[in-house]
Amino acid sequence: MAEGVEQRLRDLGEFIRHQREGARLSLRGLSNRTGISNPYLSQIERGLRKPSAEILQQIARGLAISAETLYERAGILDPREVDGPADVVAAIEAAPDLDDRQKQALIGVYESMRRTPGDPVDAAAGAGADAPAEPGAVAGPEDGGASHGR
After folding, report:
1. pLDDT (tens digit, 9 = 90+) per residue, 104-114?
2. What is this structure's pTM?
3. Where are the alpha helices (DSSP H) in 23-131?
4. Do 72 and 25 contact (CB within 8 A), yes or no?
5. Domains annotated on the chain, with CATH
């Protein structure tokens, strides 16, 4: 193996081990979750084996992380070039299965999650929070409607 590939495998193995330890799983525990043998997982973590995309997917599922993250670290997938909020908003606006009202609601939720306490609320984004509900809209707990799950 080339030196760059060997380093990438060591980095991938270290990342997997870090994720496994963070999830408080032993190698045997991850083996049980994934169906991958304990020795093979150990070799992957030590950077001695190059796992296939299928094996990485099983590991990701066992660790409850994104398979794409492991694919990127393994060099199977190029790292995504995400410019940030504009990309998220553009993706929501381009979603063909959402109507305009749903898109605006999603963008509003996304932007409210990105705001930090003390940030000024712009008039357009803040209008939805205090505006009366549209006819036929379901009232939530903050609107005096019934709360589910209490």
Report:
1. 999 888 888 87
2. 0.53
3. 27-34, 38-45, 53-63, 67-74, 85-94, 100-114, 123-130
4. no
5. 3-74 (1.10.260.40), 85-132 (no CATH)
